[in-house]
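> call design_seq(struct)
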């Protein structure tokens, strides 16, 4: 990680660049717990190096409660990723909409896996100031809906494709086309991502797509087979703070709330 202080004061309060800072901040906040779920100390180090009004961000992000949403989601995707890489140590990893996520450091890709992080160019410009490319780690500045960038990714190994906090922001047609392009490009691998309950998407203009369950995606793309779909609330036992553990446990007991956020693992 680069050592110099980085000026992020130009990041606006709205839009994707603000969202990526908020997610980073919540992971860093959660890492300070005595028994963290994710324990992303790389995020904490990045926050220490970024020059930004984090007091204002704290007021908007409400980290005491929202830290668990982000940590539980990332931990499940990390667990699936680590399991895949243990089976395929020479895999190619492609993380879509990477933001300022430190997964490539948390999972230690400086060994055999080829790791590619992709996000829109302005995000990658910010990211390069925090996480330098090294070894087999590369960053690509492009929108997932753009043509051309996928051809830069070698397809000669099993692929792990990670899309955390991304697909709900795309339209159904964009998601369908993206998944088709990915399975056309790679011979085999796994796709892991998170989705929201349909009622959440209907309530806001921010999100556009959500699967009702894994069969929705299988109907779109016969190459994809749903291996796991895990509601976020089922991990309530991991929450180290009793108040929020109880809240998530109650949510897990209510069908309409249990699926508010679901993580999916597909094989192909």
């Amino acid at each position: 990680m680069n050592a110099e202080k980085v000026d992020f004061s130009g990041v606006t309060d709205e839009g994707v660049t603000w969202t990526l800072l908020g997610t980073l901040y919540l992971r860093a906040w959660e890492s300070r717990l005595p028994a963290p779920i994710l324990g992303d100390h790389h995020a904490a180090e990045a926050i220490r190096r970024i020059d930004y009004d984090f007091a204002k961000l704290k007021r908007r992000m409400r980290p005491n409660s929202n830290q668990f949403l982000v940590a539980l989601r990332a931990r499940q995707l990390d667990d699936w990723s680590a399991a895949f890489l243990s089976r395929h140590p020479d895999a190619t990893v492609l993380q879509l909409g990477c933001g300022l996520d430190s997964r490539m450091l948390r999972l230690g890709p400086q060994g055999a896996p080829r790791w590619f992080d992709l996000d829109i160019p302005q995000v990658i410009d910010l990211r390069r100031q925090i996480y330098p490319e090294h070894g087999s780690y590369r960053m690509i500045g492009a929108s997932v809906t753009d043509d051309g960038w996928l051809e830069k990714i070698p397809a000669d190994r099993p692929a792990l494709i990670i899309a955390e906090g991304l697909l709900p922001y795309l339209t159904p047609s964009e998601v369908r086309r993206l998944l088709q392009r990915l399975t056309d490009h790679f011979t085999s691998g796994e796709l892991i991502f998170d989705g929201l309950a349909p009622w959440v998407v209907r309530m806001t203009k921010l999100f556009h797509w959500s699967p009702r369950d894994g069969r929705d995606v299988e109907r779109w793309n016969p190459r994809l087979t749903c291996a796991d779909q895990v509601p976020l609330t089922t991990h309530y036992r991991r929450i180290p703070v009793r108040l929020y553990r109880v809240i998530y446990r109650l949510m897990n007991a209510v069908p309409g709330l249990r699926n508010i956020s679901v993580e999916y693992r597909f094989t192909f």
